[in-house]
Amino acid sequence: MNNETNTPSLTTLEYFPYIDAEGQLPEIFQGKIGVYAIFDQNKLLQFVGYSRDVYLSLKQHLVRRPKQCYWVKVQTIERPSRTVLENIENGWIAENGSIPLGNGENKEKWTQPINVKSVMTPEEQVNYQNPANDELAQIKVIKNVARRVETEILKILESRGLQMQLRFNPKLKEEGLLDLK
Fold this sequence. Notes:
Layout: E1 16-17, E2 33-39, E3 45-51, H1 54-64, E4 71-77, H2 82-96, H3 107-111, E5 114-115, H4 122-129, H5 135-159, H6 170-173, E6 177-178
Antiparallel strand pairs: 1-4, 2-3, 2-4, 5-6
C-alpha cells in the first residue's frame, strides 16, 4: 500500500491471477477499498475501476465478462476517498496510452447487470413477442432466457476452474437481468 498522494504506476504492480490454483478469486481484497485493473489472457488491459469492496466488484466483473477477466492488479487505500480513487483510475488509463474497451463504449457491459434480452435467440424473441402472451407468459420466457445465459456463464467459469458458488439475484431474472446477489 503506497502513500495515498502518489499514484502508483500500473507497471510496478503485481499481476494476480483472477482465478487462483484453488479455483478462488483473490480473497486478500475482500472488504478492501481500492482501484483495480483487469487484464485478459494476454495481459492486455480491459477495464480499470474502483470500489469500496474490490473483491465483490471483481466477482461481478467475472460474471459479466468471463472471457476478459484473467489477471488483475490492485492498489488498495486505507480511507475511502473518491478523489484519490479517481486520480489513480485516471492515471492508469493515461499510463495505458488509450482508453481500455471496458472504460469506453463497452462500459455498461462491465458495470451494469447483463441484459439477457440482447442475447435472445430468434426463437426466444418470437416466443417473447408472441401477441397471445400475457405479461406472465413473457416473464416466464425471459426467466428461461436468463437461466440459459446463467448456465452458459457458469460453464465458462467452471471450465476455467472456478470452485466458488455464485448466486444470481432471482428477482432480477424476471426483468431479464442477470447479476449476482
